[in-house]
Amino acid sequence: MALSGAVRSEHVAHVLGFPRIGGQRELKFAMESFWRGEATEADLRATGKELRARHWQAQAAAGMDYVTVGDFAWYDHVLGTLVLLGALPTRFNLDPSTLDLSGYYMMARGSKNHLEDHFALEMTKWFDTNYHYLVPEWTPELSFDGGVDWLFDEIAEAQVQLSSSSASAQTKVVLLGPLSLLFLGKIKSGLSHKLDLLPKVVAGYEKLLARLRDNGVALVQIDEPILALELSREWLDAFLPVYIRLANAAPSLLLTTYFDTVSEHADLLRSLPVAGVHLDGVRGVAQLQEFADKWPEDKILSVGIVDGRNIWRCDMDTALATLKPLHDKLGKRLWLASSCSLLHVPVDLANENKLDQELRSWLAFATQKLDEIFVLKQALSGNADAVAGQFAAARAALAARRSSPRIHNPLVQKRLKAVTSTDADRTSAFPARIAIQQQRWNLPAFPTTTIGSFPQTAQIRQTRAAYKRGEIGHLDYLNKMRDEIRLAVSTQEELGLDVLVHGEPERNDMVEYFGEQLWGYAFTANGWVQSYGSRCVKPPFIYGDVYRPEAMTVGWSQFAQSLTQKPMKGMLTGPVTMLQWSFVRDDQPRATTALQIALALRDEVCDLEKAGIGMIQIDEPAFREGLPLKAVDWTDYLDWAVRVFKISAGGVKDETQIHTHMCYSEFNDILPWIAAMDADVITIETSRSDMELLDGFGQYNYPNDIGPGIYDIHSPRIPNVDDMVRLMEKARGVISDQRLWVNPDCGLKTRNWTETHEALTRMVQAAHTLREKGGLKLQVTSQHASRLTPAAA
User: Fold this and answer.
1) Which residues contact 314 (CB under 8 A, 6 or more apart)?
2) Are 204 and 85 in contact (CB under 8 A)?
3) Residue 329 — left, alpha, or beta (φ > 0 → left; ψ -120 to 50 → alpha)?
């Protein structure tokens, strides 16, 4: 299917998507105001409309030939696709044709209305990114006959805006493709295979695409990111018949792939009846020439030449050198784009007032990436002289970065050379360690704890901000944070938790807090990126060798431990997560950067132990996220990821208990490596999946202690005690009692104190119920397997 007018006088420039949150997180604040009942749905919609107009204007002003419509979402684009098709999980009892944002957010966040007690849709990572999508629920009775008209309203807005401006840009609608949508969901009941739903799904897309065509939409970007995975034959065989059907009803289709090479599917992609295909030219640069050499004469090849996943300025000379042979083969059928949606990078470097000029000169955010694409388009279209200055500036910035003395630290380089294989080992194996630890702590059956953070109140945030602005002195700040720690500790004592945390009032973000104290990291003032819903993070960027100049957490943990006789966990973010949730330097292997971080954390772990902190949690929620998309690449990553975690934890004595936490990922396929991390206790998120994620740990016979989360902290819904006990009973069916802990899914920083107090009260009650039901008490033995015995003993 050829795209009308596709072969123009010059190359076409576009992006696969633009950040939706706003440069100052306007969408976040509007959503949260609506959730609190402080703003109406009309108020929230007005904010969304303003942001969309601003983002379309930015694309048109930068010279993009198409502005992308449909990349906006009120919470998540996967849920947005479901409500557009009308495929709402039946358990919510919502009418897709009359859905409002309150109903939409009930699916996204759950409901605490006890007349309609709904738990939220499960949430997991979007491929290997830190963006979390809401997982579709597949049941046979689902309908795909159409739902809300929100996308059509946005198309009308864009068409009006573009027609009233001097820009020559056109609208391009983006949709998540039918096979990727189906693949990313989970069967809940009544289906033997996800593809059983394919006829319904395709019929729904046919209807939607026909309506888009009738509304004057000429081009639809249809995302099929699952093509970057290792798909089974039945999924691959579905593509051609599906797209033959869609082509009859649809506008011109640009099928997009990203995040990895798809060269193994080259024959399939050449055969599809679409106007063109988009390839990731950053993560899959080697595939480009292979596709271009045999590309059909009637198809567009869009190349993502500017990195949509990192914030380093584009190496324009290398990019142009990559594009020129493609241009020689394809001519104007070569389109230029971002490698993936710009959702994964901050909005605009112009918002930054914190970075020094040298660091700024090395970076490009979403708005600057638009300019980079346009400059490459101009150079490729014969207008090199007009953009010679931009090429010279990029060349100078890259040269300055390579030669800057800020990049390399001799102390770090010396430390790396001194690392040995034994640095990753604890003194004794887990069975011996856990017996020593249990004798030290004398914990009850089903010990209770939390994941680390307690509510980050407005007062806490205001105090931190005032301290950073210099409005209060260090002593005042220290006393205010200590007051918050006292509150967290006394509350946990009152609730009867067994293992306490200090609550982390001094921490802005679990990566940012540590990165601010490490050399080699830098931070922005407004480099916000959406993680999920209204949750935005400000990832640091690693520009040089990582080094810890002094202790980062010891004083806070030591103070908290002085307030209680119960064990106080020291809280750290692990090396893989510190890597994954940062924008990482691209001038050395990621494994080397991770090892540098691990050595810095190892020093912190040892200092905590010396200060009397006997339990230390090294969180690794991004461990699974870093897994390459193709299994052929797994072993290399997993081997170094396990090694750097073990190096960070390997310097302590047997009596010190190492915890870790993981969440919102599929762990079952990497359980041998999770076990190899050898944390004494792992806590995981399991409540949204109704303990489904725990099954793999049981089947694998995971050897160490484990705490499956029994309530979802990302939802305002607070389960009752019976719900929590039910989940733990499911856990007891796959994990032995002596290895089970009781805890929430994740940290509590996003919740308020009323919710937190009520939820933890119920959680502690659930643990007591389990102890009474099991008739169990603790008995210290030399064998972990007999740690719990009947109370009568």
Assistant:
1) 305, 306, 307, 364, 369, 372, 376, 394
2) yes
3) alpha
Is residue 410 assigned to a domain? no
Angle at 301 between CA 299 and CA 304, to 5 degrees: 160
Residues 363 and 474 in one domain: no
Looking up tokens 């109140």 gives 457
Structural domain for 698, as ranges: 431-785
In the block, which residue shows the tokens 């704890």? 449
Alpha carbons 397 and 376: distance in angstroms, whole number: 17
Across 312-316, average pLDDT: 97
- Read off the tokens for 444: 């009850």
Instruction: Report DSSP letters for 514-551, one per residue.
Output: HHTTSEEEE--SS--EEEETTEEE---EEEEEEE--S-
Tokens matching residue 438:
């249990």
Q: Which one, of 4, 473, 534, 3, lies nearest residue 275 by Cα?
A: 3
By C-alpha distance, which of 61, 74, 75, 77 is closest to 16? 77
Mean pLDDT of 264-282: 98
For residues 446 and 588, state if they share a domain: yes
Q: What is the C-alpha to C-alpha distance for residues 553 and 572, in angstroms, rounded to an integer?
A: 8
Of 348, 386, 384, nearest in space to 369 by CA = 348
Give the whole-angstrom CA distance, residue 761 versus residue 497.
9
Residues 520/545, Cβ–Cβ less than 8 Å: yes
394 and 451 within one domain: no
Cβ–Cβ < 8 Å for 683, 661: yes
Structure tokens at 483: 């007051």
> Hey, what amino acid is at 234?
E
Query: How many other CB atoms are there within 10 angstroms of residue 464's CB atom?
Result: 19
- What integer best gives the mean pLDDT of the chain? 92
Pair of tokens at residue 287:
């595939």
Same domain flag for 372 and 482: no
Shared-domain flag, residues 394 and 448 = no
Is the pLDDT at 6 greater than 50, yes or no?
no
Residue 699: its pLDDT value, please? Answer: 81
Q: Long-range contact list for 237-240, CB < 8 A, 24+ apart?
A: 238/179, 238/195, 238/198, 239/179, 239/268, 239/272, 240/268, 240/271, 240/272
> For residue 412, is it within any domain?
no
Question: Per residue, what are the HEC states of 471-524?
Answer: CCCHHHHHHHHHHHHHHHHHHHHHHCCCCECCECCCCCCCCHHHHCCCEEEECC
Which phi and psi angles does 206 have, rounded to 5°? -60, -45
Specify whether the CB–CB gap between 155 and 173 falls below 8 A.
yes
Q: How far apart are CA 101 and CA 109, in angstroms?
A: 12
Q: Give helix 77-85 / helix 198-214 axis angle, nearest 10°.
A: 90
- Radius of gyration of the chain from Cα atoms? 27
Any idea which of 112-121, 220-229, 433-442 has the lowest mean pLDDT?
A: 112-121
Give the whole-angstrom CA distance, residue 276 versus residue 745: 43
pLDDT at 689: 72
Count of the separate structural domains present in the chain:
2
Q: Which residues of 196-226 are buried (b: 16+ CB within 10 A; e: fewer)?
A: ebbebbbebbbbbbeebeeeebbbbbbbbbb
DSSP state of 568: B
From the list 315, 334, 319, the residue with the least C-alpha distance to 398 is 315
Neighbour count for residue 723 (Cβ, 10 Å): 18
Which positions are annotated as active-site residues?
A: 714
For residues 211 and 126, membership in a common domain is answered with: yes
Across the range 159-182, mean pLDDT stands at 93
Distance CA 658, CA 650 (A): 9
| Total-model pTM | 0.89
Average pLDDT over residues 264-275: 97
Is the pLDDT at 216 greater than 70? The verdict is: yes
Q: Which one is predicted more confidently, 353 or 218?
A: 218
For residue 689, give both structure tokens.
Answer: 């999946």
Query: Do residues 303 and 281 make contact, with C-beta atoms less than 8 angstroms apart?
Result: yes
Within a domain: 678 = yes
